[in-house]
Write the structure tokens for this entry.
Amino acid sequence: MSALVSHITSTGYADRVLSDQQIGRILGGSNDRRYGQVKRALQSGDLVRIKRGLYVLAAPHRKYPVHPFALAQILVIGSYISMETALAFHGWIPEAVYTTVSVTPGRKSKEIDHPDFGHFEFNPLALHKSDFLAGVHRHVISDQAVLVASPLRALMDMVAHRKQEWTSLDWLQTGLRIDETHLVQTRIKEFPALKGVYKHKSTNAFLSRLETDMREMKENHMASKKGAQL
């Protein structure tokens, strides 16, 4: 174990993402000392560079592996996990998702490939800033706090990103393979919170049609359930 790893571990920062400034405070001394120890730790594999000025300890020195959701929010500050990644996280789609997809408050799309942590995609959407985090919730995964869109918000972010026009619920059930059980369990009161989020009329029209058809689906489901109990 390198001296740098020993210092970081002893201060309780082993599972955190660390900046040059934080490492400097942990080590003390001159910038040259910090630079030398960081360089040696990178060469030995004890330290992994996320991007310029940001690092994590290698897996053997951590209690928990670095979660890609937490890493995404370090790579682009202010972003949250959404679209296919969030739907898979909530168990709404059966396919494995190998790209960590986020929505960013910025104006430019960005893709990042990291040799150790995988592929990341960041997408801007036409959103009203005041409602940027509507339907986005904080989760703690292996002691790492992350922001993840609810299933409905993730779905509507996907609609907005793809500029998807409404056809029917079949697009969700057949195209995305979302099980009816998940749709029925969606709370109708979640819809009003999203009506001030999206700027494009077509996305809001999709949201309205989805709400109408999901209300009908829930009513039919409840009626068939009552009928089965009689």
The two ends are 68 Å apart (CA to CA). The chain has two domains: 3-61, 68-221. Residues 50 and 56 are 7 Å apart (CA to CA).
